[in-house]
């Protein structure tokens, strides 16, 4: 039995995909019956049971944590008694603002080798059963292989790596660049400017990730290049839409989970402490926090010194 903790869009979509093949229990703190308010129109397969009782959900063996990144540390702390000892798979993309840690380090007190599931995948696509490829990263490759088989389905294909830092940072950093891509489109700067932004943004992602010990090939894979392409080019992305609203000078929808906004703050702070050049992340952090306006944000990027690619 697989337990999915968090009945938002991503948790619900994973429960649907996995529940087509095996027994799943889906927990949500406000879950009533089989309603999925964050994934309208989606229907849970019969093999998925639902609960608002965390103790009941934690009778499952493997637990998938599909919560927003900034909620993960508090959730892990508050519910350590239920979570400790289970194989844990973090399904969130971001960097914890308070500590600068990624999801696996946040869960490290609860299991010796938490895993992370990340990569290019919209919840709506997964729920519809469309083909999706994700990265499952676990430092313990034997556990990673077990999880890879447990969590793969014919439509949801998991690729495995032991590069946890690379997989985490690929998923976290692409959201920051997607906000910037949205700003470019919202401000009417055009598709050529977006391609330039994505390319320079990727260079920035790689620089940051390598400095944290990631492997370059991980960033070139699904969690990194793959997710960057998806999120910077699709209207389905909340990070992209958030940036597009900022670029167009309208208020973003406050009800949406936009992981890149807090992650940009964390990444800009870490980059400043370590002397890493991260101009796009710094711009997104300043713009999202209201420290600079749109014209200053664009000017900052366009006035960078000319240098070798
Ligand atoms: N949506 C997508 O397409 C994808 C999302 N992801 C990642 O999945 C993670 C979750 O995002 P997503 O599901 O989309 O977000 P949603 O906004 O759709 O849902 C978030 C869910 O988390 C619950 N939640 C928030 N805080 C807590 C808490 N403290 N305790 C318990 N439950 C809590 C919310 O519960 P409530 O409704 O009660 O507030 C809600 O059900 C993010 O890191 C995101 O980047 C990854 C790939 C695809
Ligand atoms: O991570 C995602 C796709 O891989 C979902 O992107 P958003 O959080 O921007 O909607």
From TrEMBL:
Q: Which top-level group of life is the source organism from?
A: Bacteria
UniProt pathway: Membrane lipid metabolism; glycerophospholipid metabolism
Organism taxonomic ancestry: Bacteria, Pseudomonadati, Pseudomonadota, Alphaproteobacteria, Rhodobacterales
Instruction: List the Gene3D superfamilies.
Output: N-(1-d-carboxylethyl)-l-norvaline Dehydrogenase, domain 2, NAD(P)-binding Rossmann-like Domain
* EC class: oxidoreductase
Predominant cellular place of this UniProt entry's protein: cytoplasm
Please state the gene responsible for encoding this protein.
gpsA
Q: Where in the cell is it found?
A: Cytoplasm
The UniProt catalytic activity note for this protein reads: sn-glycerol 3-phosphate + NADP(+) = dihydroxyacetone phosphate + NADPH + H(+); sn-glycerol 3-phosphate + NAD(+) = dihydroxyacetone phosphate + NADH + H(+)
Which organism does this sequence originate in? Gemmobacter denitrificans
Q: What's the protein name?
A: Glycerol-3-phosphate dehydrogenase [NAD(P)+]
């Amino acid at each position: 039995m697989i337990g999915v903790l968090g009945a938002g869009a991503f948790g619900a979509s994973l429960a649907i995909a996995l529940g087509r093949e095996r027994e799943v229990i889906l927990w949500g703190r406000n879950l009533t019956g089989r309603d999925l308010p964050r994934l309208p129109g989606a229907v849970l397969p019969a093999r998925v049971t639902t609960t608002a009782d965390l103790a009941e959900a934690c009778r499952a063996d493997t637990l998938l944590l599909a919560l927003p990144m900034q909620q993960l540390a508090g959730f892990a702390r508050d519910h350590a008694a239920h979570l400790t000892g289970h194989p844990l798979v973090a399904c969130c993309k971001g960097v914890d603002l308070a500590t600068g840690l990624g999801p696996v380090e946040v869960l490290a007190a609860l299991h010796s080798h938490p895993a992370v599931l990340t990569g290019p995948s919209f919840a709506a696509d997964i729920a519809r059963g469309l083909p999706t490829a994700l990265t499952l990263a676990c430092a313990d490759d034997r556990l990673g292989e077990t999880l890879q088989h447990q969590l793969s389905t014919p439509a949801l294909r998991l690729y495995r790596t032991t590069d946890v830092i690379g997989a985490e940072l690929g998923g976290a950093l692409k959201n920051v660049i997607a906000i910037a891509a949205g700003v470019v489109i919202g401000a009417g700067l055009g598709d050529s400017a977006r391609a330039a932004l994505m390319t320079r943004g990727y260079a920035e992602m790689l620089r940051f990730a390598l400095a944290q010990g990631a492997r370059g090939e991980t960033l070139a894979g699904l969690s990194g290049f793959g997710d960057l392409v998806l999120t910077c080019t699709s209207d389905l992305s909340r990070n992209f839409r958030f940036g597009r609203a900022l670029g167009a000078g309208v208020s973003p929808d406050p009800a949406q989970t936009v992981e890149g906004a807090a992650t940009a703050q964390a990444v800009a702070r870490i980059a400043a402490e370590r002397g890493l050049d991260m101009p796009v992340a710094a711009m997104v952090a300043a713009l999202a926090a209201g420290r600079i306006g749109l014209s200053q944000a664009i000017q900052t990027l366009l006035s960078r010194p000319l240098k070798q690619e």
